[in-house]
Description:
- The chain has helices spanning about 35-45, 60-65, 65-75, 85-90, 90-100, 170-180, 200-205, and strands at about 1-10, 15-20, 25-30, 50-55, 75-80, 115-120, 125-130, 140, 145-150, 155, 160, 190, 195-200.
- The protein is of the alpha+beta class and about 210 residues long.
- The strands form three sheets. It has a six-stranded mixed β-sheet. The protein has a five-stranded mixed β-sheet with strand order 1-2-3-4-5. It has a two-stranded antiparallel sheet with strand order 10-11.
- Strand 7 (about 125-130) and strand 8 form a beta hairpin.
- One zinc ion binds near residues 57 and 152.
Amino acid sequence: MLRYHTHPVTAFDQNCSLVWCDQTMQAAVIDPGGDLDDIVAVAQRLGVRLTQIWLTHAHIDHAGGTGELAARLGLPIIGPHPGDQYWIDGLPQQSQMFGFPPAKPFTPTRWLHDGDELTLGESTVQVRHCPGHTPGHVVFYSAQAQRAFLGDVLFAGSIGRTDFPGGNHEQLLASIRQRLWPMGDDTVFIPGHGPESTFGRERRSNPYVAD
Ligand SMILES: [Zn+2]
Ligand SMILES: [Zn+2]
């Protein structure tokens, strides 16, 4: 079974999640934006072994600690989709603009595409490409656990910003309706910021995407 624990990091309270297979205790860290000592300490406390880094998109609060964590622990970097290459290239400028520590450059070990599958111990996770907030944004979905890790696509009561270069509001709405809603009303999602919710609840009450 896939289990997870969410730990907010950086000044933006970005929901960094540790997900792991409880048969093998192998874990992936989703979006290590910063506060790496905290992330490593949480992994130790949970008794899991970090084996992979998964990225939803390459904004600084999600990807800023990736290069350093990968180097420190020798981890592969999985994701995001190649559409975010320019955000990865721009991490040094993002660090300066938002007052983050300098981001160590990195190259993903594996780029992700819609429909890809990731293996974590004895669990598998589906990848969906959900452009709109950024062109290369992906989300991670476990049908077995009924959980989706969404980055900045959808929030409880809100949706991702689309006013950055490469953002596209219509594309974001299409990603949410065509790629998230089919995961089912009962699926719980973990957004990049703020509290968890379910797709059913957002379809009823989210002012941006309700049916
Ligand atoms: Zn973002
Ligand atoms: Zn964010």
